[in-house]
Specification:
The structure is a single chain. α8 packs parallel to α9. The strands form 2 sheets. An 11-stranded mixed beta sheet has the order 1-8-2-3-7-4-6-5-9-10-11, sandwiched between helices. It has a 4-stranded parallel beta sheet with strand order 12-15-13-14, with helices on both faces. The chain is an alpha/beta fold. It contains 9 helices and 15 strands.
Length: about 325
């Protein structure tokens, strides 16, 4: 199979519609990361997503729809606070989990009685979703546990020869996956942190809880596995207070004949000697740059030595969630 990268012009969108209609899979740009999409009503197509990614069968998918799609066709109940959040943040990087039974293929939610729905703001995503006219189940367009893709080339690197089309909308501006919010209870609850922060949600809904996954529990949302978003090279991770340990780790790798690279926030760069990748200077920039930096690092380094950013709260909850999972390090927001 030839994998083609194309802007979302009429010809590419028409091909995408045909491919989705026959049960195929198409990658597409969103404002967060690129998605790997198929018809959410078609169990065979959804199963193909899981097979392509090597994705665990208990890891639910998110359904993407265009801004005018009637959500009542997909979900059983939308509480008043969820409607207020929809008005405030959609289209945008917020996924909302609603009660839903039998509306799409059961493979999408991995047997749960809920459905995660997102309305992306990306013009490319909106054009694709309007053209196909169907809810599209789509995880990030990368092999399972690998670094998420924020350019069409990243998708191509993971799926060359396995999918026919990547709808190229340029680099993703947000850079980390959407916030996932459980809207099945009396109070919204964050399942996965992202660019729509707890503070932002509370400003609309009044209250917002944060979910803590228990050992052995089935995931309620994508992105909750311990090791996730991981580069292919070897890694090590240190706190900001462990900078000396990070330096010793760097020197040990050099002595062994390797090519180490630090990954750190910009403020630390003047204090480090050697190869380093700039994560960015503020939370929004770090979110936008994280996956691109990790993809670059796995191409250049034998060992990526991560030093956690110091800032906490807001968008940094999402950044640190991905940062620590990429390096197999525990993180509590």
């Amino acid at each position: 199979m030839i994998t083609r990268i194309s802007p979302p012009d009429k010809k590419a969108l028409a091909f995408a519609k045909e491919e989705i209609a026959r049960g195929g899979v198409v990658a597409f740009h969103t404002e967060t990361v690129y998605g790997l999409g198929a018809n959410a009503f078609d169990g065979g197509a959804v199963a193909h997503i899981f097979a392509l990614k090597g994705r665990p069968a208990d890891n639910p998918l998110i359904v993407h729809v265009h801004r005018d799609y009637d959500l009542s066709a997909l979900v059983d109940d939308i509480p008043p606070y969820a409607k207020a959040l929809e008005r405030a943040f959609l289209p945008g990087p917020l996924t909302m989990v609603y009660p839903s039974v039998g509306k799409v293929s059961p493979l999408v939610s991995c047997g749960l009685n809920t459905l995660a729905v997102r309305v992306p703001s990306s013009e490319t995503a909106q054009a694709f979703l309007r053209t196909v006219g169907l809810p599209i189940a789509a995880p990030s367009a990368n092999k399972s546990k690998h670094v998420s893709p924020v350019t069409a080339r990243h998708v191509y690197d993971d799926f060359q020869g396995e999918i026919p089309l990547i709808l190229d909308g340029g680099a993703c501006s947000g850079g980390i996956e959407s916030t996932v919010l459980d809207c099945t209870g009396d109070v919204p609850q964050i399942l996965r942190a992202g660019l729509v922060t707890r503070e932002m949600i509370e400003s609309v809904a009044g209250k917002c809880a944060v979910y803590r996954m228990r050992t052995g529990e089935k995931p309620k949302s994508p992105g909750m596995a311990h090791q996730h978003y991981a580069p292919k090279c070897r890694t090590a991770c240190f706190s900001a207070e462990e900078r000396e340990k990070a330096r010793l780790c760097y020197e040990e790798e050099l002595r062994a004949g390797g090519t180490p690279f630090y990954v750190c926030e910009r403020a630390l760069l003047p204090f480090l000697s050697g190869n380093a990748l700039d994560l960015g200077g503020d939370p929004a920039e770090m979110a936008a740059r994280l996956y691109a930096v990790l993809r670059e690092g796995e191409q250049k380094a034998t060992l990526l030595i991560a030093i956690e950013p110091k800032e906490r709260g807001g968008v940094m909850d999402g950044v640190l969630n991905r940062f620590c999972r990429a390096f197999g390090r525990d993180h509590e927001t």
